[in-house]
Amino acid sequence: MPEILIIPGSLRAASSARATARAIEARFRDRATFVTADVGLLPHYNADVTDDPAVAAFVEQVGAADGVLFVTPEYNYSIPGVLKNAIDWASRPAYASVFKGKPSFVITVSGGVTGGVRAQAHLKYVLNGMLARVHANKEVLVTQANDKVTDGVLTDDAVLGFIDTEFAPFIDSLS
Fold first, then answer.
1. Is the pLDDT of residue 73 over 90?
2. Is the model's pTM score more than 0.85?
3. Ordered domains of the chain (ranges, CATH)
4. How many other β-carbons are positioned within 10 Å of the β-carbon of residue 17?
5. Which of 53, 104, 151, 174 has the most CB within a 10 Å radius?
6. How far apart are CA 116 and CA 95, in angstroms?
7. Which residues contact 58 (CB under 8 A, 6 or more apart)?
8. DSSP 3-state of 44
9. To which H or E segment does residue 159 belong?
């Protein structure tokens, strides 16, 4: 069974991004093992720091995973700083990091009607720059996400059905 590392773009336990990740994990737990990275433990990126244990653990998680699932909100028309910080830590050495060739799947969420489309484009651009293997699929955007969460889990059947259709081939590609 493949191991998928979830990298959330939000630190909030009650965020719609984490609610979406929890729903996906529940729906696919019979097809993959899921581990969630704690990007809040990482210090601000600084190339002078070479021995931080939280960074080493995160880089090891990315390297060990068969695939990475990014579930992130959109902040100010882009990806959250905490997510970019995590990616920056794991992106070294350039063009030869643990992200090189790493199968990656991107989902964005937003309280608005665009579903984080700009964050999705920016994140895919960053991942492509690190030579990650971004899964080709229809963009998964969870619009008005706050209204689709019940008890900390995304519950919208239409959105979840669409995620099932797009995410299942990603899992299949990891086997």
1. yes
2. yes
3. 3-174 (3.40.50.360)
4. 28
5. 104
6. 27
7. 37, 39, 41, 42, 86, 89, 90
8. coil
9. helix 157-174
